[in-house]
Amino acid sequence: MKELFNKKLQICMKAYDYKDETKDVKGKSERLSAINELQNLLQDQKSVQQLIIPNLDTVMEMVEKNFFRPLPNIKKSNLAFSETGIEQEEEVDPSWPHVQGIYEFFLQLIINEAADVKSLKVYVTPQFVQGFLQLFDTEEGVERDYLKNILHKLYAKLVPRRKMIRKAINECFFTLIHETHKFNGAAELLDILASIISGFAVPLREEHVVFFKNVIIPLHKVQTCAEFFEQLLRCSMLFLTKDRNLAIPLLEGLLKYWPFANCVKETLFLTELQEVLEVCEVEKIEPLIPKLFIRIVKCIGGTHLQVADRAMCFFENDYFLSILRTYKDQTFPMLVPTIVNLAENHWHKILQESLVALKTILKEIDSFAFDDALKQDSKSSGNFGLKQSSEHRETMDKKWEKLDRTLKSTQAGYKAPDIPFSSSKLIMEYNSLYRKVYDKEKFMNNNPG
After folding, report:
1. Which residues are CB-neighbours of 266 under 8 A, at least 6 positions away?
2. Which of 152, 300, 397, 434 ranks highest by number of CB atoms within 10 Å?
């Protein structure tokens, strides 16, 4: 029986060329059968105790050989059916049916009572965890679900390895934040972190606060954060339920990393900003009032309707209105001139009606402060302008050109930075949303029918 078991493990270790369906058909079929038989063994506790546990060395070798492989490059269309009207065929990894069985086997092994902590922790080394986390970058969503479930079960079962697993996840996110800026499994890892954060004791340990400030907040600046924003928001708010004092650093981070030329991400930031403000203590928010309200004013007066509409929702919130009233000496000079101007001149009729209503609300809060804000001189009101004047833009460009010339003359190896807006650059090189529009236009031109 033991020899037959070892033979099945050896069969499962064999690698084949899955891209060519005509090659090694018999071997591939035997491999699938062996995987199914190994899964069936886990249903019998006697077999687990007599065959699998005594041979964990070979079992884990087989698991690692199947897991730790070059991830398949699956070509996925950048354009959805709703955008093109044409169903796009997506490639499927031909090796996945063979790997999926191993994932299922390993998952059932971890949750099996016979596989105790002492037996498993020997194999969950830093190298294993690091390699396992790299698999989260796969483009196969089903594989990422298996990885998430397995890592969650390992973390729950192997208490002595929890700190090591958390450290490895931290390093994975550091790479995403500071180097790669894209990681397919970020959402799944944040899902795991959410359940971990829920179990943190209060008051939070210093290492958990450091993690919040060095990982959770900087994750907002990642260009692709819209792909995992729901999970990131959940983790952020879970930390605030543990310690509401963390709301101020998070608020500072949101204002610091506010997205540029990305309306989808901007709308998400506004959603989180409103939730965070409700946790903040009114008296502690004073230093951030200027930055906060300038940002909201810019969103309301921006060119994107959805962003403006979402920013207007702040004024439906009683807690936000209490902040507005508390600091009206600072907020009214920023808000009133812009709201009055937009209420008269905004291009969208429905939003214009909302702006007229907001103008009335502001006047009702304090009519004297409202009138004083309207009387402020043009120089001070220009500080909160929604758009740069051509003169201001020209002055800034001249300052930049002067600084550029100075650096060229003083530093031999100086190279001018690559900036988004110039006559020789396309903005799509800097923003994925513009690239998507460009791809769509190219697709439609190539497929006129």
Report:
1. 258, 259, 299, 304, 307
2. 300
